[in-house]
Design a protein that fits this description.
The complex is a heterodimer. Chain A is mainly alpha-helical. Chain A contains 14 helices and no strands. Chain A has two domains: 51 residues, no CATH class; 233 residues, MetI-like (MetI-like fold, Orthogonal Bundle). Chain A is flat and about 65 Å long. Chain B is an alpha/beta fold. The chains are: A mainly alpha, B alpha/beta.
Chain lengths: 314, 438
């Protein structure tokens, strides 16, 4: 039987073979990896370093002719001592916590349901995953109509169930409902994503483990807590990581639903950052703001990934 | 082979040259996507015929207009040769080199700013304010005005109920307080078996809505940005007792006389509320009035218009724009030719007749102007008492601060009017300190 390496060498055109003959394996590896590394440096690392540099200046991108002043840590100090920004961070944390909470509970419950074999299972799965296939812009616009006090289905349903007049409250207006309205929309849209990941986890559990548990006369409840939950947990944690990072950056849907209002009730850090960077054009200041957000997400994600690895090792 | 290569290269070069030549014979005009923009497309066909220059248009919906266009300018983009930009952009446009200074061109082509309404020239063309440095030609006069259901106001049963409720005749409000009283009268009233509401006003949070709406009351009460123009001395002006009273009035208006859920409403929502027969009155820009009058359901003899009512003084919030030549254009001659054509009195007359709000004296001083449209007289009256927001290069920071303070107080029920205006001074002071102006 011919050696495949020899065969590959024979198949290589002689000119190419001659050209790379003088290169070591390491050099050839670098040759192939270099374009990717160059792209990564150009579009990821360089902008990051440049942003860090800008964060120590008063640079404004809309005034290219103005002298750029080195301001040291001033931008960082202003941001970290700004009550408004801390309030936006709290709004973001509130949004993040409750969306993850509901999506994990509902996503897992739906996956548990879908994992059972029953008639119409496939159709139901398709229907459930529909919301996450929609564009956030579309979702934002049609939920605005659903929440409309006079013609919206939500207020109408509340009136039907509780007798509270539909016109008497606004889900996106004052009264404290607006943050919850956004949490509802995000949960509606992204629970299917968590469900799919949980479903993958549930389907990866071999049947023989449950069969062994049955032989040991373990109850369903005990099987759930000692087999299902631990084995799905790494998947669930992965889903939380993805959704957590995504929701930290949530922008489009909130802008469409409330524009950050009423007042600042739904002003997430990402919306505030966009206004600082591309409406006020405080590039240096917003660079510092972006770095703080990046470090926060990166730090939290790193801790989380370590925890995830520990769970996987168990 | 070489011959073929040379031929191909020559053909490619010729094609490129042709494309470049075609490109210089085109102009792109950028503006917001709304009724007057459609009229301008029609009007510009005359320019195309006359000059041989093909006109392209880039119209962006209002909510994204500022973002899109300011990004374009700030990045030195060549999308727009001509830009009909908001009045507040003039400071930034001039100081950051986005707009071409037009003084020499005006002088060389006998275009006189004295031929245009002084308030419009001041607001749309000059920087620094009050100087004779022109960065735009007034293109579209506009102010925030009001319109109402004339057919409802004329009904005997409604008139009688109004008289009984208020002790006065139902008519176009003459003061801000009458405006509120009239709106409150209609709030929740049954008309033809349908619940209607007082008025739709601007409360939008994201861009400029609530500021444009609330300043209609603030200016009427006598609100000033500074005690001394150009000194940025805001204490006692921005938060004067009259300003506090005006802001409390606007909040009361929002709470007691607007349709449910109008907590983030701007131009479109105001038009929808009126056209769907939900409200008796609505505020909006004069630019929409021709379209409203032509509406088959709520226009014609069912609608009438009035200028923003005075309280302590007559005042209207300024809208409208000037047309500027973008300094990054690759067709400077063509862009200037368009400006010259647009400044022509005959073109200005046609512009008005097509639905554009010309502020050229040849149009406004025409004896038949007031009768040329049911809102023409109101437009003249409004433009004689317009006030605009800051036009500083940092106007966006100033505007966002006001949006936040007003929405927090008026819609989100946080704090008092006094606290909102005091806070606004603090925000604006910080902006001007950053700008090195304080």
């Amino acid at each position: 039987m011919p050696n495949p390496i020899d065969a590959a060498a024979r198949a290589t055109p002689p000119t190419v073979a001659r050209r790379i003959r003088g290169l070591s394996d390491r050099a050839i590896a670098w040759l192939f990896v270099a374009p990717t590394i160059f792209l990564l440096l150009a579009i990821n690392i360089f902008p990051l370093i440049w942003t860090v540099r800008l964060s120590f200046t008063n640079y404004r991108a809309n005034r290219p002719n103005e002298e750029v002043e080195w301001v040291g840590l001033r931008n960082y100090i202003r941001i970290l001592t700004d009550d408004g920004i801390w309030a936006n961070m709290q709004t973001t944390a509130h949004f993040l916590f409750w969306t993850l909470f509901f999506q994990v509970i509902l996503g897992f419950a739906l996956a548990w349901l879908i994992n059972r074999k029953f008639k119409g299972n496939d159709l139901l799965t398709t229907l459930i995953v529909l919301p996450m296939m929609l564009s956030p812009a579309v979702v934002g616009n049609f939920w605005t109509f659903l929440y409309q006090p006079q013609i919206g289905l939500v207020n109408y349903t509340v009136e039907l169930l509780t007798g509270t007049p539909a016109n008497s409250f606004s889900m996106l207006g004052p009264g404290g409902y607006a943050p919850w309205s956004i949490i509802i929309v995000d949960t509606w849209m992204w629970t299917p994503f968590v469900m799919l990941i949980c479903l993958a986890g549930l389907r990866s559990i071999p049947d023989y483990i449950y069969e062994a548990a049955e032989v040991d006369r373990a109850s369903k409840w005990r099987q759930f807590w000692t087999i299902t939950v631990p084995m799905v947990l790494p998947f669930l944690m992965l889903a939380v990581l993805f959704r957590g990072i995504e929701n930290f950056k949530m922008f489009d849907m909130v802008v469409l639903l409330t524009g950050g209002g009423p007042g600042n009730e739904t002003l997430l850090a990402s919306i505030d950052l966009k206004r600082e960077a591309f409406e006020k054009w405080r590039t240096g200041y917003s660079s510092a703001y972006a770095i703080i957000l990046f470090v926060t997400v990166f730090g939290l994600a790193s801790i989380y990934v370590k925890a995830l690895n520990k769970v996987k090792e168990r | 082979m070489k011959t073929r290569l040379l031929t191909a290269t020559a053909v490619a070069a010729l094609c490129t040259a042709g494309a470049a030549s075609a490109q210089t014979n085109e102009l792109t005009l950028c503006w917001a996507a709304w009724d007057p923009a459609n009229a301008l497309v029609e009007l510009s066909k005359d320019f195309e015929t006359q000059s041989g220059i093909k006109m392209n248009f880039e119209f962006v919906p209002w909510p994204n207009f500022a973002d899109r266009m300011l990004n374009e300018l700030n990045s030195g983009g060549q999308l727009c040769d001509l830009l009909i930009g908001d009045s507040q952009w003039i400071g930034g446009g001039a100081e950051n080199g986005h707009y071409v200074k037009l003084n020499d061109f005006f002088a060389a082509n006998s275009i006189s700013m004295a031929d245009f309404m002084p308030a419009a020239v001041y607001a749309y063309s000059t920087w620094p304010k009050g100087s004779e440095n022109y960065y735009a030609l007034p293109a579209m006069g506009d102010a925030n005005g009001w319109f109402y259901r004339k057919d409802w106001f004329a009904r005997d049963d409604i008139k009688a109920a109004f008289k009984e409720a208020t002790g006065r005749d139902l008519a176009e409000p003459k003061t801000q307080k009458e405006l509120l009283e009239t709106a409150q009268f209609f709030q929740g009233r049954e008309i033809d078996g349908k619940t209607v509401y007082g008025a739709s006003i601007f409360t939008e949070r994201g861009s400029e809505g609530i500021t444009m709406g609330a300043t209609g009351a603030l200016y009427a009460w006598g609100f000033k940005y500074e005690n001394t123009p150009g000194k940025y001395d805001m204490e006692g002006a921005v938060n004067s007792p009259a300003a506090v009273e005006a802001l409390e009035f606007y909040k009361e208006f929002y709470k007691t006389a607007t349709p449910p859920g109008y907590d983030n409403a701007y131009m479109e929502q105001s038009l929808d509320a009126f056209k769907s027969g939900q409200v008796a009155m609505a505020m909006n820009w004069f630019a929409f009035f021709p379209g409203l009058y032509a509406d088959p359901n709520t226009g014609g003899d069912k609608i009438d218009f009035f200028v923003n009512p005075p309280q302590n003084q007559p005042a209207s919030t300024l809208g409208g724009q000037g047309i500027s030549v973008v300094s990054y254009t690759d067709n400077m001659d063509g862009a200037l030719e368009y400006i010259k054509w647009f400044a022509n009195p005959d073109v200005q007359k046609k512009w008005w007749s097509m639905g554009g709000y010309s502020v050229h004296n040849a149009v406004l001083n025409d004896p038949g102007f007031k009768d040329s449209a049911p809102f023409a007289g109101d437009f003249l009256e409004a433009m004689s008492a317009v006030q605009d927001f800051w036009q500083e290069p940092a106007y966006a920071s100033l505007l966002l601060a006001m949006q936040e303070r007003l929405h927090n107080y008026v819609v989100a029920d946080q704090g008092t009017a006094q606290e909102a205006l005091d806070g606004l001074i603090a925000d604006w002071t910080e902006v001007f300190q950053d700008e090195g102006k304080l």
